[in-house]
TrEMBL record:
Organism in which the protein naturally occurs: Listeria rocourtiae
The organism's place on the tree of life at top rank: Bacteria
Start and end residues of each NAD-dependent epimerase/dehydratase domain: 4-195
InterPro entries: Epimerase_deHydtase, NAD(P)-bd_dom_sf
Protein name (record): Nucleoside-diphosphate-sugar epimerase
């Protein structure tokens, strides 16, 4: 039986991964999460759970803590919607890049044989559309790409590194409010307009998968036969128009969705960027530049990941409905 260490065990992905690894009966699971300790229903008694900030521990303490574990799953870090004080590039590097590289080095010292990173599908689009200069414009995407690069540089000398580029992930953690709460509030206030092109046709969309599918992919990535590689995951490509309709229906909302031209959409983004500037803050996804991504289809064909990581079909639309019904 192998032992897996999950950093971020009480988050959406960490919670689903804990359950999935335990259900195989092939793994012992240890989780490490930021406080507070969650309410009943989140912590599976079959796993060992620890709370604190791993970044505040000494190297010796971390190595000792990781001894005896075979696999390290990094499901922590700061997400793309965080708006820190300036400079954001430095903040996201400190929070998302440095811990991954450092923990991979310490994991090797502790005898861990495999390090799996949960990162962003923006890394895929950075490579696909170099003309958009995503890493130069968006501090979060810069850090996400750098995070992946630096992890893959740590491959070797007894440690196999795998990066999973995740799209939007939907699911619920018992007793916790979904991260989609802000989106739901803005939708209620009609602050999520839909961009339309010059033919008055809605454009844009994204890729989604469930937390359960991510957990299955993590189990696949834990397999010794899976090589060091970056995999772009996904399942359902859904247009922005269809996603908004799903969310509205789940919330039983009669809010009318506004349609805006690209110029109108950019005007809203400029106002948001100005407000951030006045507050001395900087978004991980720069609002004005991000309008370009809002109007594109961020779709993924995950055939390679499906073949090698063997995650399965799940009802993404139902998961979206459950999330927004809970809000």
């Amino acid at each position: 039986m192998k032992s897996v260490f999950i950093l971020g065990g009480t988050g959406l992905i960490g919670y689903a991964a804990t359950e999935a690894f335990l259900e195989t009966e092939d793994y012992q699971v240890t989780t490490f999460s930021l406080p507070p300790v969650p309410t009943n229903g989140v912590l599976d008694s079959r796993a060992k759970h620890h709370f604190g900030d791993i970044n505040n521990m000494s190297d010796a303490e971390i190595v000792k803590f990781l001894k005896g574990h075979d696999i390290f799953v990094f499901a922590g870090g700061v997400n793309s919607h965080y708006i820190p004080k300036k400079p954001a590039k430095e903040f996201f590097f400190q929070m998302n890049v440095e811990p991954v590289q450092h923990l991979a080095q310490l994991a090797r010292q502790a005898g861990v044989s495999r390090f799996i990173l949960c990162t962003s599908f923006y890394n895929y689009f950075h490579a696909l559309w170099p003309e958009l200069q995503l890493t130069g414009l968006h501090p979060y995407i810069y850090a996400s790409v750098e995070q992946e690069i630096r992890l893959m540089q740590e491959n070797g000398n007894g440690l196999t590194t795998v990066a999973l580029r995740l799209p939007y992930v939907v699911g619920l953690v018992p007793g916790r409010v979904s991260a989609w709460k802000t989106y739901a509030k803005r939708l209620h206030r009609a602050e999520f307009p839909l961009y339309v092109n010059h033919h008055n046709k809605a454009t844009g969309g994204s890729c989604y998968m469930t937390a359960k599918q991510v957990a299955q992919a993590l189990i696949g990535a834990a397999n010794d036969e899976v090589p060091s590689k970056s995999y772009t995951l996904g399942w359902r490509n859904i247009s922005n128009e269809a996603f908004l309709a799903l969310a509205k229906r789940a919330m039983k909302s009669d809010t009318q969705i506004k349609t805006l031209t690209f110029r109108e959409l950019q005007a809203i983004a400029m106002k948001e960027a100005h407000e951030n500037e006045l507050a001395g803050r900087e978004a991980g996804l720069e609002p004005v530049a991000y309008t370009e991504l809002l109007t594109r289809t961020l779709y993924v064909d995950p055939i390679e990941a499906l073949d090698e990581l063997d995650y399965h079909n799940d009802n993404v639309e139902l998961a979206i409905q459950q999330v927004f019904t809970s809000l």
